[in-house]
UniProtKB/TrEMBL annotation:
InterPro entries: CoA-transferase_III_domain (IPR050483), CoA-Trfase_fam_III (IPR003673), CoA-Trfase_III_dom3_sf (IPR044855), CoA-Trfase_III_dom_1_sf (IPR023606). Keywords: Transferase. This is CoA:oxalate CoA-transferase. The keyword Transferase applies. The keyword Transferase applies.
Amino acid sequence: MSSPQTDTRSGPLAGIRVLDFSRILSGPYASMVLADLGAEVIKIEPLERGDETRAFPPFIGDMSHYYIALNRSKKSVTLDLKSPEGIRIAKELAAQSDIVIENFRPGVMDRLGLGYPALKAENPKLVYCSITGFGKDSPHGNKPAFDIVAQALSGVMSVNREPGQAPNKLGLPLGDMAGSIFSLFGVLAALHERHVTGHGRHVEVAMLDSLIAMQGYLSQIYFVTGQTPQPVGTQHPSIVPYGSFATADGHVIVACLTERFWHNFARCIGRPELIEDPRFAAYETRLQNRAELEPIILGAMGREGTAYWLERLSEFDVPNAPILSVGEALEQEHVAAHRLVETVDHPELGPMRLVRGPILFDGEGPSAAAPPSRLGADTAQVLREKLGYSEARLRELQRASVIGATGDESAEPREHAAQQ
């Protein structure tokens, strides 16, 4: 078992402690960002199996890619939350924490005795964040909610397709991610308020609400016109030309968001007369005549390859991009220049490449990450240092199956990352 990490995090949230009961993605992503920002994150996991994502292939050694992606720089503590003693320990940790994050169905934490009212009574300054699929007052009630469920109910799948094709989910797990992102807004706002009032808050975020909130102009198209937006594939529902266009050997993205870019683009493809053509001279007329304009564009761009058009579009100052694979995106020069990928040295599994957080403070990104912990690897250290438990008490709790390994094999500090 890997050795426990020491409290050497730096950043704007250094000194803030997070007790994280969440699992899978919506919740773990939020707590990972808080760790990137300097908070100490103690992740509570079930005995034996831990977070369900520990079992999701593929693996590095026996550690899941999924768990690695969402749990860097956290301490893993195993507790039996079905036992009174496990609940008591969780309450002790919550009493010494600034933030609690959980993503169980509504009512689960209350039934365990770990809901906001119970923990607030012992720690009035606690910022308690609940991430759910639908929220406690939703007619969807206690239905299980995963990313694809939220995407389907939000309307996003209906427009994420080419016209006439079957609905498709986003490649990114945005239903889960949106819940985490909005929870971060709420948690950080509540922390700020706590400095003024001395009291915490119960922050509640539903995944479905978060996705609907992110629809932006799509919702407003419906409110303004009474018509639900229709799928346009990579194109834009109200701006033309904007999207992916076929070349002689591939595709290239063109984004003419302003009239200046449209004029530049018309000259770029050798059709300057389109600028004054009444069918295409304004946003509204281009949208109305999309079916006439796009074949003209495709006819021009289909005569040359992608490399030619990327160079020419840049020459004419037209926003453009190649369409990269995930691997190509991670290996591109931009990623290296911004140091978005770092390598951490796991004590048993060796080097791991991780994507860093994107937020810079005074030009600097997050402090180097610690590799994800083995299941329960930090239990003994946390209970010793935070709660003052003796070795005898730790052994007693282990024998009673309230906690996992005592961590005696974890005396050495964790190795920290070397930035790539």
